[in-house]
Design goal:
62% helix; single chain; alpha+beta; 5 helices; three-stranded antiparallel β-sheet
């Protein structure tokens, strides 16, 4: 993972985190929005502008890739680089959680 990717994506925004997490399976933008809402009990809502801007940037940076189009919807999937970035963020979140639990 190069310095640019690490600088831009670590730490991640909640939006970026949920986009990559959802794209562990092939999915289109609206599916990402709905799955994120379901996973967070409605706490995180991704607006279309934020979503499509993030998808475009992540695709350009090689974190996700376009798979195909179905019924005028672009289907994406996380790449190996995207998995590395997501794993890095998950480890950071786990470290935060363990630190918090230790001082409670």
């Amino acid at each position: 993972m190069n310095k640019h990717i690490k600088k831009v994506y670590a730490p991640m925004t909640e939006t970026g985190f949920y986009i990559l997490l959802c794209l562990k399976q092939e999915m289109h933008g609206y599916g990402i929005v709905k799955k994120t809402e379901r996973l967070t009990g409605g706490e995180v809502k991704i607006s279309p502008g934020t979503l499509y801007g993030s998808l475009s940037k992540m695709e350009k940076d090689g974190l996700i890739r376009f798979i195909r189009e179905e019924e005028n919807r672009k289907i994406y999937r996380i790449t190996e680089l995207g998995n590395q970035v997501l794993d890095l963020e998950m480890k950071r979140i786990e470290r935060l959680y363990h630190s918090m639990a230790e001082v409670r």
